[in-house]
Amino acid sequence: MANNSFVFEDISISASSLNDLAVFVYYFNKVNYPVEYYTSLNQLKDVKNFNDVLNIIKNNHHVVVNDDNIQRYKFNSSFDAAGRWSFKRNLEWFFDLEDYKNEIETLSDNGYDKLIESIEIEVDYTEDEGGCAFIDEANAYVRAIKNEHGEYISNIDINHNYSNYTIENLKTICGYTDVYSINDVLNNMSDYFTEDALNNHKTEIINSLNTVPVKNRDFIYFDLYDMFDELNVNIYHNYLI
C-alpha cells in the first residue's frame, strides 16, 4: 500500500472558451475528487451538476491574454489532495477523462480533442509526506499530449523545493500547530503548556513524556491528547487534554 501525502495550496485552470473551461473543470472534479488519491477543488466540493459548475465559473473566472496575444479564460481555486507517495502522480492523472469523452464532446464548444489540447493548468503546492519524510514547496505547469496509443497524458514541467521533515518546518512551512515530538516538547515546554499547567503539573508531564522510549522521542506526532487524559492539562492552541 502506498503512503498518502497531504497536499494543499492553489491551482489555476485556463481554456480557450468560458464554456470549455467549465466543461473541463466539471469533469476534472468528477474524476479526481471521489477517489483515494484525490485532488479536490475547494470551491466545488459540494457541487453535483454541470450547470452549477458553469455558474461558478461564470462568476469566478477572469480573462487573460497569453504571450501570443490570445484571449483565454482562467479559473483559480484553492485545493487539497492526497498524493500517492508523491503528488506528481496525481498530476499524471489530470487528463484521464476518456470515460467521459462522449459527454465532453457534446457539451464542449470545440469537441473533445480541441478542448483537452487547449487546457493549461498551473499548480502551486505544499506537500507533506511523512512516510518518506519530506516537505516539498513546488510549482507545476501541466498540459496534455498524446502518447503512442493516442491517449491523452500529462506533460509536466515541475520545480521542487524540498525541506527537511522537522517540527520547525512542519510549523513554519505547512502551518501546523498540533505537531510535535517528545524531545521537542521536553525542550520547549512553554511552547506547549500554559503557565498554570507547568506550575501545577510539570513533574507529571515530564514523567508522562519520559514513558516514551528514547529511540522514539524524535518521531513526529500530531496530537498530545492521550498522554495527558488523566491530568486535565491545559495546553496552548486552545486544546484541553
Blueprint of the fold:
Blueprint: E1 4-15, H1 18-32, E2 39-41, H2 50-60, E3 61-65, E4 71-84, H3 87-92, H4 101-107, H5 112-118, E5 120-129, E6 134-146, E7 152-159, E8 162-164, H6 167-172, H7 182-187, H8 189-192, H9 195-209
Antiparallel strand pairs: 1-4, 1-5, 2-4, 3-4, 5-6, 6-7, 6-8
Helix pairs in contact: 1-2
How would you describe the overall organization of this protein?
It contains nine helices and eight strands. The chain is α+β, with helices and mostly antiparallel strands. Strands 1, 2, 3, 4, 5, 6, 7 and 8 form an eight-stranded antiparallel sheet that branches. It is elongated, with a radius of gyration of 23 Å.
Please count the beta strands (DSSP E, at least 2 residues each). 8
Strand content range: 25-35%
**CA distance, first residue to last residue:** 33 Å
* Overall pLDDT metric: 90
How much helicity do the residues have?
25-40%
Summarize the helix and strand pattern as letters: EHEHEEHHHEEEEHHHH
Uncertain spans: 237-241
Rg (CA only) = 23 Å
Report the sheet with the most strands, covering strand number, pairing sense and barrel closure: 8 strands, antiparallel
